[in-house]
Structure prediction request, 314 residues.
Amino acid sequence: MSEYFLREGRMDCNCSVCLSGHSKENAVKIVRVNPGYVSLVAKLETGESVQCILVCENDCLLAAGKSGRLHLWVMNSTWSAWTEEFIIPAGDSISCVVELKKIPKCPHLVIGHNGFGDFVLWDIRKRINISRFSGSGAPIKQFLPISLLSWQPVFGNADTKWCIDEIMTATKLGFSGHKDCSFIPLDEEDVAIWLLVSEAQYEHLSSNCQANMSGWWRLALLVKDRIILGGTLDPRATAIGAAFDHGIMGRDDGLVYMWELSTGARLGVLHHFKGGSVSCIASNEGSSPKVVAVAADDGQLLVYFHKQPNSVTK
Prediction:
């Protein structure tokens, strides 16, 4: 797709397309990137300030605002106009969705959070919200979905160790052999999600939900309307990603390594950027061939291709 999505009023660009109506915050512009300039393809408007956007299902564009609702447009083949438009509620007691992500291997599922640890899971195909998970109120800088599973405890009053064993068993099954989550019965009471979250220390949260934050990464489990946080991962982490059913960590000393998400076992070092730190990790999870890119703060970029289980090549 050659188009580039621009949230109006949020980008510092002085071209005529970006400057037109620059003060509006309730619109999304779709522009085509050309050599040296951009051209307007379409302009979509919502009834409230747009905080974040996401493209999913190849032809769907999502925008989330201060109310916590999702504005969904189904676009035509050229992305020049929408063919269907929907408003999907976020449920009670959540507002100002500041980040949206797709669930790996589940192209129709989208998860978002409000910056204070509350998460909502939506089914884009059914146009509904499936579940809400309440946090402790601690601010979240960013998050990375890892996997979704359906989990039902055998006994309602099972002790903590038994529950953990059941969850880990369900997690390992979720990572082994299944290509997508379409077979999982999605019920509000049974769905569970593994995340990597950056729990932040914040100086101030303004009225437009933008925060000045910094924090460390840790593992988190969303289950039974609550969030269970694990211990802090590598405190030197500057970037994190997930690909090939593995976690990928980049550190401030330039080290890049992988670990097995289902067990936590470290698998080995991918690369070591000498004299710099890792600034970004990105992957095309869900597409083929599977690729992950790792960038350093000095401009170096490595691209890895998946060849076989537990093996990557660059």
About this structure: Residues 113 and 268 are 32 Å apart (CA to CA). The helical segments are 16-19, 160-175. Residues 6-11, 202-208, 210-214 have pLDDT under 50 and may be disordered.
